[in-house]
Specification:
Layout lengths: L8 E4 L2 H12 L4 E3 L6 E5 L3 H11 L8 E3 L3 H5 L6 H10 L4 E6 L14 E5 L4 H10 L3 E2 L14 H8 L5 E4 L10 E4 L6 E4 L5 H8 L3 E2 L2 H7 L14 E4 L14 E5 L9 E4 L3 H18 L3 E5 L8 H12 L6
Parallel strand pairs: 1-8, 2-8, 4-6, 5-9, 10-11, 12-15, 13-14, 13-15
Antiparallel strand pairs: 2-3, 3-7, 4-7, 5-6, 9-10
Helix pairs in contact: 1-5
Bound molecules: adenosine monophosphate and magnesium ion.
């Protein structure tokens, strides 16, 4: 990517800043903004050149489609064909961390959809995200505001770290409440199919829809292009820890950082301990970046206990950040 360097302003997300952000989006520029899941890199979802910019700034493979953010179910109907299932799920979980995949309408260019006939739509609950969508008057295409493959940003400083010099504006709305991305559900037929675990749990979906399917392996790669690529990884290796003793020497030598619920199993240089799985999820990406900045040479991360509703989403991010590498 050879974009010229811009001056990136980080501005508290008050009303004037949101108006400025909306004007930038309408003129084809990109703006980072907070959502309840992670920070998004937003552009006009009806403008193919905004989509091209998003892929270029992120260094994102062009076959990985973007989630389109809207302010309501009515607005979603203008972006995609909301099936009965999609409507039922959105009425239950919007605004919130649920993305539905539905047949796309023409107004959303193919660039945004990664060439697919479907579109992923979400109505976020963060007041700044909603204010930005409303002030822009267009649906906003927004992947996470990190360079492709890196941990998602959960505060404005993490966005600056990855995209400083590449975008004109970051709206600062403080740290994100959920800290992991939305749940992506294929809602094109009668039964929801989870394509990515996230902020809405499988159990919550089951409570509303009855049956819920999950797919994995090659089938998932075919149906959810984003899962084909490496994701969420800090610049140092992550080792999964599922209990038992760990020989710190087996982690490659140097300073080791730890993130998890229990006491670290060996003497680490820095430990982030969460009180429960939701807090672990909220802290995961932030702690990866913090430890990276501290100069650790490896990160040990505890596998969440089975049975916690948020455990699926957390395990998915940990597994992909580590590439499945285990310690102990
Ligand atoms: P991100 O923007 O990085 O949070 O990732 C977006 C996720 O949504 C990726 O896992 C994509 O594969 C998935 N996604 C977006 N659009 C579609 C679609 N039309 N069909 C299936 N998955 C999609
Ligand atoms: Mg992402």
């Amino acid at each position: 990517m050879d974009e010229p360097l811009l001056e990136t302003k980080v501005v508290e997300a008050h009303e004037d800043a949101v108006r400025l952000a909306a004007d930038l989006i309408l003129s084809g520029e990109l703006v980072a903004f907070p959502t309840e899941t992670v920070y998004g890199l937003g552009g006009d979802a009806t403008n193919p050149s905004s989509a091209a910019k998003i892929y270029s700034v992120k260094g994102r493979p062009v076959d990985n489609p973007l989630i389109v953010h809207v302010g309501s179910l009515e607005e979603a109907c203008g972006v995609g064909v909301m099936t009965d299932l999609a409507e039922m799920l959105c009425m239950a979980f919007w605004p919130g961390p649920l993305t539905v995949v539905v047949p796309a309408r023409e107004v959303i260019p193919r660039e945004v959809r990664g060439g697919l006939d479907t579109v992923a739509v979400r109505c976020p609950s963060h007041p700044v995200a909603l204010a930005l969508i409303s002030a822009s008057g267009v649906p906003i295409a927004a992947p996470s505001a990190n360079r492709s493959g890196r941990p998602s940003p959960t505060d404005a400083s993490a966005v600056m770290e990855d995209l400083g010099g590449l975008i004109p504006l970051i709206l600062d709305g403080g740290p994100c409440r959920v800290g992991l991305e939305s749940t992506v559900v294929d809602a094109t037929s009668d039964v929801p199919v989870i394509l990515r675990h996230g902020g809405v749990t499988a159990q919550e979906l089951r409570d509303v829809a009855g049956e819920v399917l999950t797919v994995g392996g090659e089938e998932l790669k075919r149906r959810s292009p984003g899962t084909r690529h490496r994701h969420y990884a800090p610049s140092v290796p992550v080792f999964l820890w599922a209990g038992g003793p760990v020989d710190i020497g087996s982690l490659g030598g140097g300073m080791v950082g730890y993130v998890g619920l229990e006491e670290p199993p060996c003497g680490v240089s820095h430990a982030v301990r969460a009180r429960d799985v939701r807090e672990y999820a909220r802290e995961l990406f932030r702690s990866f970046r913090e430890m990276e900045r501290m100069g650790v040479s490896a990160i040990l991360a505890q596998v969440p206990p089975k049975g916690d509703p948020m455990g699926d989403a957390l395990f998915d991010r940990l597994f992909r950040a580590s590439g499945g590498r285990t310690a102990g």
